[in-house]
Amino acid sequence: MSRRRQSETSDEHRGERAAHAIYGSVIVLAVIVAEQGTSASAAQVIASVAGAAVVTALAEVYANYIGGTIRFRRRLSAAERNVVERNVAVGFATAISPIVFFVLAALDVIDLDTAFDVAIWAGVGILGAHAAAANRLAGFPITQSVLFGLAFAALGAALVGLKALT
Length: 166
Known about the structure:
mainly alpha
């Protein structure tokens, strides 16, 4: 395979992995925001976050199977399934990462309110960082990439702020 083709394939895989990471992160962030201010314990939030991450990963595997079968008019090859599995694994790992804060709360290292705050704002920051990194990988200038990252982080913060209205 030529260097250019390898680079395109590598960029394609990075893009797919980033997409999976974002799907899972947004869903988990929505679950965390929805649970904040309820009577949920740290253990219940851990179960909710884990459940959301698992369900999202399974949905992504299924969607890739259906999409690939239609797109290629055949079942996915072992190599194609391996790429899907790696992409979904990256998305799962990114999505489930906020669970750490709730484990710390369950162990009484931090309080539950702090776990919620840190998990939410870390999630917003991760979404902004993905946007900035994507723009840099696409070759956009640093200033423009940072501005896009900040814009997406602000959008995430605005969505989190909607919870305050309820």
